[in-house]
Task: structure prediction
Amino acid sequence: MREDWKKHLIDQGAEFDDGDHLRDFGNPERERSIAVNGSVLCDLSHRGLLEVRGQDARDFLQSQFGNDVREVTGTRSQLSSYSNPKGRAYAVMRVLLDRDAYLLETSAERAEAVRKRLTMFVMRAQVVIENAEDTRIRFGLSGPNAEEQLQQTLGAFPVEVNDVLTRGEVSAVRVPCMMHPRFEIFGEIDACKPLWNDLNVHCAPVGPESWRLLDILAGLPEIYPETSEAFVPQMINLHALNGISFKKGCYPGQEVVARMHYLGKLKRRMFRLAIEGQDRPQPGSPVFRAGGDPAQPDGTIVDAVLHPDGLWAALAVLQTPAAEQPLCWGNPTGPAAHVIPLPYPVPEGA
Result:
């Protein structure tokens, strides 16, 4: 994290773990509650960010990612995935175009692995791939009045999910939500600091766990080292989130993804769960049918964060028949896991 931005956040009450990892703003329980019910700002420095530039950048990314990068413009972003030749996702990312460079926002735990793997395939292409976490300030805005707040501060707001609005040195991206409008904002520090301050008048600053909670409630998947290469993109609902193109040319894993779309029926997909118990369900940990075979998990945790109601808000890839039965996390007699509707429809096919 940039020292000048870190100082700004500390002045706002931010508390850090050892190093540059923002933990919270002093009251994580209250922050979780406000994130779900009110208006919040959240620094997004905990997210990884790569920059891809060069005259061949678009064609190169088009040959690697599962969505159609040609549709990314200065006013339109997209979700996408990067998979191995067997169609299993290394990472999920948001792809944006910022002037002459593509930005890839993904989990911090996967960013360097994605950079290294992409670099392996650059070969003679005129492409540069770099870590860009400190080149731009990034923060999130969520709340019932978020649209009006951006209207007042920027003069407009992105209308549709994935839309991008740029005003001067600041850009705002509309991202999926469960209930209240959500936006991710990025830009130069001299523009972002006063914008944060203006928005903070009617918002509460929160730590990264609160934004992670909002992602889970919105049904947005994340890939961690524990789940890398575990899921085909359709299993984590990217087809329901406009994160896959079935019309573009070749990319790693395309045959598997296309075969599942045109010939197969999706046997596993992502569901939202509310999980009881004291221990946090970790990515990659198993989900079972209650009383089922302990050697045969029926699902896998994608992500989980504590909800203000005291349960763990989670996303999990489940065998679709199992989702209609009582579930437990960790083992067949473990804490109960309850299926909660997602905020978007998921096609029965893939």
